[in-house]
């Protein structure tokens, strides 16, 4: 059995964890044990997307106010992916793949997306209905921020100030490829 990060913890803690993990695996199947390990201390799934609730969010090296600020987000509503939890702190990843720690009070469960942030010049057609053959109602530039109204696993209905439409889910950062959002 592979050891899982118990450096500095008492040997009994590692043994108790291994025993609990083994019991979960035996009693409810490997899938249930894996699901149990994919939840953070908050009980919510990891990873997951959320958005920034403030226009100024400090990102730190570690999970406390004593850790150095490495950069500051300056736009409210940007989507970030929570990859780890530690107490009231969340390790987040942005659309560029950069990671750091943010206090949970600066995050919101509101779902937002960035339109194809990996693209430099390619505008994304915003369509009136979820069909590749549907006539575009507008074209969205890379990095446009939108609110997620819903996603069916292939298409997302998104909106912003003065616009609304559907976009293929694969062209958005802030939702997983086959995720359904209601």
Topology at a glance:
Elements: H1 11-37, E1 48-52, E2 57-60, E3 69-73, E4 79-86, E5 89-93, E6 99-103, E7 107-108, E8 112-115, E9 124-127, E10 136-140, E11 145-152, E12 155-160, E13 163-168, E14 172-173, E15 180-181
Antiparallel strand pairs: 1-4, 1-7, 2-3, 4-5, 5-6, 8-11, 8-14, 9-10, 11-12, 11-15, 12-13
Description:
- This protein is mostly beta strands.
- It folds into three domains: 9-38; 48-110, SH3 Domains (SH3 type barrels); 113-181, SH3 Domains (SH3 type barrels, Roll).
- It is 15% helix and 39% strand.
- Strand 12 (155-160) and strand 13 form a beta hairpin.
- The chain is elongated and about 50 Å long.
- It starts with 10 loop residues before the first helix and ends with a strand.
Number of domains: 3
Based on CA inertia axes, which overall geometry fits? Answer: elongated
Radius of gyration: 20 Å
- Main β-sheet: number of strands, strand sense, barrel status? 6 strands, antiparallel
Distance between the termini: 39 Å
Kindly provide the name of the CATH class of the largest domain. Mainly Beta
Tally of extended strands?
Answer: 15
Helix content: 10-25%
Strand percentage, roughly? 35-45%
Give the CATH topology of the largest domain. Answer: SH3 type barrels
Give the number of helices: 1
Arithmetic mean pLDDT: 84
What structural category arises from helix and sheet content?
A: mainly beta
Q: Write the H/E string, N to C.
A: HEEEEEEEEEEEEEEE
Specify the CATH architecture of the largest domain: Roll
By CATH, the superfamily of the largest domain comes out as SH3 Domains
**Unreliable segments (pLDDT under 50, ≥5 consecutive)?**
1-36
């Amino acid at each position: 059995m592979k050891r899982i990060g118990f450096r500095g913890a008492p040997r009994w803690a590692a043994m108790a964890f291994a025993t609990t993990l083994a019991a979960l695996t035996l009693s409810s199947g490997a899938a249930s044990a894996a699901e149990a390990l994919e939840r953070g201390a908050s009980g919510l799934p990891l990873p997951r997307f959320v958005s920034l609730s403030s226009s100024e969010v400090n990102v730190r090296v570690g999970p406390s106010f004593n850790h150095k600020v490495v950069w500051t987000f300056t736009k409210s509503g940007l989507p970030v992916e929570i990859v780890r939890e530690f107490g009231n702190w969340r390790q987040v990843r942005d659309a560029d793949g950069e990671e750091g720690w943010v206090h949970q009070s600066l995050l919101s469960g509101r779902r937002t997306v960035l339109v194809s942030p990996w693209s430099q010049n390619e505008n994304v057609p915003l369509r009136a209905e979820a069909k590749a053959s549907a006539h575009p109602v507008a074209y969205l530039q890379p990095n446009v921020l939108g609110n997620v109204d819903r996603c069916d696993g292939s298409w997302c209905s998104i909106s912003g100030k003065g616009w609304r439409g559907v976009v293929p889910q694969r062209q958005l950062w802030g939702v997983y490829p086959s995720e359904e959002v209601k």
